[in-house]
Amino acid sequence: xxxxxxxxxxxxxxxxxxxxxGFLLGLGLLLKIGVLLYRWNTGAAELPVGLLAxxxxxxxxGGLLMRWGLRMRRGNNAHRNxxxxxxx
Length: 88
Hints:
69% helix
């Protein structure tokens, strides 16, 4: 049995929380990558490629969280008009 859709006010609140969490995740990972690259640049440590790749994937996840939050805040449905003059 499908759950009923959320009321518009709740959708906006959930969208705001998703935006905030995506922003904070991205900010934290950017700081972490900055420290990692600084240590590598100064010669204090070798560049762990695996850790860098995981952090970049986390940045992608933060961006997707923000995109999902924007869609929830705007109230867009999942269907897109292929004839619309818009940027994806």
